[in-house]
Amino acid sequence: GIPLHLREDRRHIRDSDLARLIDAISAPINLEMAVTDEMLGIALKTKPHAVCLVPERRQEVTTEGGLDVAAHVAVLTPFVARLRDAGIRVSLFIDPDESQVEAAARIGAPVVELHTGTYAEASNTARPMELERLQRVAHAVQTARIECHAGHGLTFTNVVDVAAIPEVAELNIGHFLVGEAIFLGLPQAITLMKDAIAQGAARRR
Description:
This protein is of the alpha/beta class.
């Protein structure tokens, strides 16, 4: 699949890019977007395979942290329902926190994507603790009967331990692959990432 983030300020892609890609490729599109009426209308019109709801702040370079589902249950419940009724798979981008998982279950989200940015940016001494948190919350996600995804800041090296988490069904990696493609070419970058993911997945057995 291909993750695309149509931001409110259109700094990453434009509306025409989304429409063109949906028409041109058969791979599933995972549209990352804010919880706004404008974005809801775009999603319902273009009907991507999946939508991942993320927080947005104009000052940030990229998405920083997860959506506070617990604080916005009343807003998110009908929003998620509209997307699901349209046949779009909905995921919520959340920090690895059990309270956010519980809130996601209450509003009927079929998927959550665990924010791996804190893990990816952690020092060598702090990273094992962040990995343990991801493992614990991924198990809570599965227990809540929600599909567990993960993403943000993942590279060839740090993706292996995340891919080894048994409950993680999907990894969303966009920016790193495009950056590496400048030096390696996209086919080689994707091959190396798939190899790293396979290395981690092999630990599940």
